[in-house]
Amino acid sequence: MDLNYPTEAEAFRPVIRGWLEQNLPQGWFDDNFSMTEDERKAFNATWTSKLFEGGWICAGWPQEYGGKGLSLIEQVVLNEEFAKAGAPMRADFFGDTLVGPTILQWGTEEQKQEFIPGILKGEIAWCQGFSEPNSGSDLASLKTSAVLDGDEWVINGQKVWTTQAQHADYVFLLVRTDPDAPQHAGISYLLVPMHQPGIEVRPIVQVDGSAEFNEVFFDNARCPKGNVVGGLNNGWKVAMTTLGFERGSSSTTGYRRFLKEWEHIVSVAQQKGSSHDRITRDALVRAWEKIKIIEINGYRSLTDSLNDTHHTAMLGACNKMFWSEMHRDTMNLALDILGMDGQILSGTGDNEGSVPGVQASRGRSDYPVSDLQAGFFFSRSETIWGGAAEIQRNIVSERALGLPKEPKVSKA
């Protein structure tokens, strides 16, 4: 693990800081700075366009496709300076982090020219169509099919747990294009428009009334023949690339959201007087220790990426398993500290269970959960999406420790 940044990367810091000072609202860096609701709405309405004009959206992408061509370490410095300033960066996870880099690596020039500008400008919203009801963690067993009909693919099947599908313009979709090929060999990666006949989106309502996840049904939906990314029946390899795109540039800042949330939980404990309880204090210290481990592991992952030592996949499995279970346990602690107050629906945005910037209050008007309550609910899913904790343990045990593979379940 190397904590010394190159001289040229450190020289980049004042450039970013100078831009932030010029473009953030006056007084942003003052200790007592605050904005009214109208001022914050106005800020949010214009900030993304300022980021785009400054070239800070997808700044690591090649210059010929609208990025700045920043190196990984320069992207790290960029994220660190934005985090220090408390300045938001655009969070289009599916476009910026997953499908955009996939198209840049695997796409044709025509696909890059068609889709990359829309991703950069935020004009195309995306969702990910991988999981299916009967596939579970065995993604290669997917059954959604695509059959070529002239110059179009005709798609039939079902996807599930599709985040933000109700808002998406396109879905990057895994489909079976060769039913006679081995499981991993007959899959293709398609870019499919969502706004068309034959696609139905059904929300999956969660316990707090939110519905970020969806079921998506394809009934003779269509997309152009040229929307295959990475070549026909090569979708498994392309998909593994997509799943491998971690935010290496956020490796040294990702822990901050947990730290901010932890600091708020401490303040709630102090308000309730439970911070003097030895068991509560020990639990808070253990949570803080795990957050520091996440921070240190971020530097390990960054060092691995910079040195191209190819440990990232294993580190990713360990880190995903660690932070997701840590966050679940921390949110359990938060609800313990809230006590019976944690059972009261209090999602007003200004109560002791809420903290701006950590987890927005959400849910139905008749089920107004607070930020900590929403975080508690959401943390249950974090040990599942992106690779369930059980699967991560299999990866570590088999690939790192060399243990025997888990026996397959008999179909007899």
Provide an overview of this structure.
The chain is an alpha+beta fold. It folds into 3 domains: 7-90, Acyl-CoA dehydrogenase/oxidase, N-terminal domain (Butyryl-Coa Dehydrogenase, subunit A, domain 1, Orthogonal Bundle); 125-238, Butyryl-CoA Dehydrogenase, subunit A, domain 2, CATH 2.40.110.10; 254-400, Butyryl-CoA Dehydrogenase, subunit A, domain 3. It has helices at residues 7-23, 37-54, 72-85, 93-106, 109-120, 235-244, 256-272, 278-307, 312-338, 371-382, 389-400; strands spanning 126-129, 145-149, 152-159, 170-176, 187-193, 199-203, 214-224. A hairpin with a 2-residue loop joins strand 2 (145-149) and strand 3 (152-159).
Summarize the structure.
The protein is α+β, with helices and mostly antiparallel strands and 412 residues long. The protein has helices at 7-23, 37-54, 72-85, 93-106, 109-120, 235-244, 256-272, 278-307, 312-338, 371-382, 389-400, and strands at 126-129, 145-149, 152-159, 170-176, 187-193, 199-203, 214-224.
